[in-house]
Amino acid sequence: MNKPIIMLGNGGHASVLTEILLSQNRNIIGFTSPKKEENQFGIPYLGNDEMILKYDSKEVELVLGIGSVCVNDFRRKIFELFINEDYTFVNVIHPSAILAPSVKLGQGVQIMAGAIIQTNTTIDDNTIVNTGSKIDHDCEIGAHVHLAPGTTLSGGVKIGNGTHVGTGASIIQNIRIGNNCLVGAGAVVIHDINHDVKAVGVPAKEVR
User: Mind giving me the DSSP string for 48-106?
Assistant: First the structure.
């Protein structure tokens, strides 16, 4: 049985997730934000994130509506804070996304409109697969990753935790990308990338 949802955040990313959930008739009882704001969907403001702790973790589910535009661990810290308090994050999947039956998802995964995820791919906790991204067979995507709109991963790609892959980037088959990397928008990755590296260009090269 679906539980009521609390949305963390009220910005653009939260709006996209809210619209998906409302289209699926999910009950969003309120949103949190550092300061009181209006919500375009009329969802009530509950207070800051600490207000969530007043709700029984067995009676509500959470959605992390805070997006990311680069490598940062803000989303991870919030996610882990509430996981450690026994709250559950909902997977949000747009109805136009295509997922092969063998795809395995962690907790709190968000898959946006037009995404395609192929056979035997695994996606770990709190990862965003944004609009129109394409992930081919046998890919392994870590936790707290953001695949920005229009990214393309060929088969067998592995991406480490906390990595951000920019808009329109392409990664050829069997590439390994480490943890906490930034792959620039439009980059074409043809070689493995170590941990904590920023890579940009065609072909992608490390920059300092």
Answer: SGGGGGGS-TTT-EEEE----SSS-SHHHHHHHHHHTTT--BPPEE-TT-EE-TT-EE-
**Residue 197 CA: distances (Å) to CA of 12, 105, 180, 205:** 28, 26, 7, 10
CA 157 to chain centre: 17
144 tagged catalytic: no
Residue 5 CB neighbour total at 10 angstroms: 22
Among candidate residues 13, 94, 137, 164, the one labeled active-site is 137
pLDDT per residue, tens digit, the chain (208 aa), is: 789 999 999 999 999 999 999 999 999 999 999 999 999 999 999 999 999 999 999 999 999 999 887 877 899 999 999 999 999 999 999 999 999 999 999 999 999 999 999 999 999 999 999 999 999 999 999 999 999 999 999 999 999 999 999 999 999 999 999 999 999 999 999 999 999 999 999 999 999 7
Residues 58 and 35 sit within 8 Å (Cβ to Cβ): no
